Amino acid sequence: MAKSDKSGSNDRAGMAALSPFELKDELIKAAGGGVVERPANLSMLNAGRGNPNFLATIPRHGFWQLGLFAMRESERSFAYMPEGVGGFPKREGLEERFEIFARENKGVPGIAFLAGAVSYVRDQLGLNAGDFLYEMCEGILASNYPVPDRMLKLSEQIVAQYLRREMIGKHPFVGDFDIFAVEGGTAAMTYIFNTMRENFLIKPGDTIALGTPIFTPYIEIPHLNDYKLKVVNLDADVAKGWQYSKAELDKLRDPKVKAFFLVNPSNPPSVKMDDESLEYIAEIVKERPDLILLTDDVYGTFADDFVSLFALCPKNTILVYSYSKYFGATGWRLGTIATHRDNIFDQQLAALPKDQRAQLHERYESITTEPEKLKFIDRLVADSRTVALNHTAGLSTPQQVQMVLFSLFSLMDTPDAYKNALKRLIRNRKQALYREIGIALEEEDENAVDYYTILDIEYLGERRHSRELVDWIIKNTEPSELLFRLAKDARVVLLPGRGFGTQHPSGRVSLANLNESDYTQIGRAIRELMDEYIERYQKATGKKADKSK
């Protein structure tokens, strides 16, 4: 590798305030992404993206076959018009016609899954198969506005079963919850922050807590002029497997903390919160029954026996879940917000001062004759369309259909074959990366999910080399220098851990978006760069540093 120089260092220093997702674009430029002068055989390895390079094929096949069946039903309705005009599907006899369609197309990819899904809905979930097919056909044709606007009726019940299995599991859970289907986890975050502010659940100057490291927007949004919130960080400890100490969790006991926002499993450490910590938070909630919890559990489906905070503290928790990563569906924009029907959000709305309730009455009176009874989750729906456009709210119906098919695919996969295949895939990639870096992985942490891994310079550097070397590197390099060196010299792009709230200099590696051989190459590039810094350290200090302990 070429020796480091200070050219462009001022520019790099000025990038310190950038979000890691914006800095990623600068790193890609440094790696020559899109630059035609670069030799064609020098491909860029972008491990900064969270977008997986795998996807669920079976429910997608099912989607396209359902579309063909729905089109046949549409054309059947207006068979007398040859000009390409179709009609709405007819409910009567729909189930029988689908059985004929399935027999005619036996062996076609997706057909067996669709037929099995109809049987599962009828026999296991106890829903009417004809009603289900009608909702799916009308939904995939997108011939009507979403009604109900929060989520289609049977779709909500099926997705609820999926969330129960993946987020709650065997944990005792009393009561039911409502779901709002949204355009991915990003939309969920936007809607929740906005509605909490509009409904006085959080106000400028209020204090919230963040479980860090955390997905960058949770760090950035509270500081916007829209919110102006104060933030207390609960820092997970890398030396303790990225778990939170009781001392950190005890920060939630402070009555000034109005809400706690958490990504679980974490991003970027990719570790689920252990049972002891979950139970400790549940005990704090008993002491703080007013504490609002938001748990973003997009990576929970990659974990074994995952239990969400939503399962332990259902009345206090807003659950966010996205289908993007597990099903390889970032382009579909599929997410959910779930709240227990008996929750503290509705209680806090009812207890607001008279003047604030009057303001909210005026805000929502155009959509209901009883604004005071409008549930928090339905306020999310209205606010997502600035209230005035509430009558056209809701996630597009084809998106909801694909969400339902993804959910049924998982519910029907009782051996967890798909989940186990993904776990093998990403864990083999992790092994390849660390093996080439020269760091022996310890026995696999039962809480590790491994969608990402975070290369913590202090922790890993001290394990492989010495504390003195680590201190010298930190003192003599800029925060993003190592990342730019990797990008420029090895054409490897990682994201800075700093932007996710990590305590030490680090880089986030996505284990989801490249092939195993690519992670071998990335590991080799990291090792070569570290070897160069070791040589520089030895020349500067006259001391020897072992390249490996």
From TrEMBL:
InterPro entries: Aminotransferase_I/II_large, Aspartate_4-decarboxylase, AspAT/PAT-like, NHTrfase_class1_PyrdxlP-BS, PyrdxlP-dep_Trfase, PyrdxlP-dep_Trfase_major, PyrdxlP-dep_Trfase_small. Keywords: Aminotransferase, Pyridoxal phosphate, Transferase. It is an enzyme of class 2 (transferase). Its cofactor is pyridoxal 5'-phosphate. It comes from the Bacteria. One of its GO terms (molecular function) is aspartate 4-decarboxylase activity. Residues 173-524 form the Aminotransferase class I/classII large domain. Its EC number is 2.6.1.-. The keyword Transferase applies. GO terms for biological process: aspartate metabolic process. The keyword Magnesium does not apply. PANTHER family: ASPARTATE AMINOTRANSFERASE. Belongs to the class-I pyridoxal-phosphate-dependent aminotransferase family. This is Aminotransferase. It comes from Caballeronia novacaledonica.
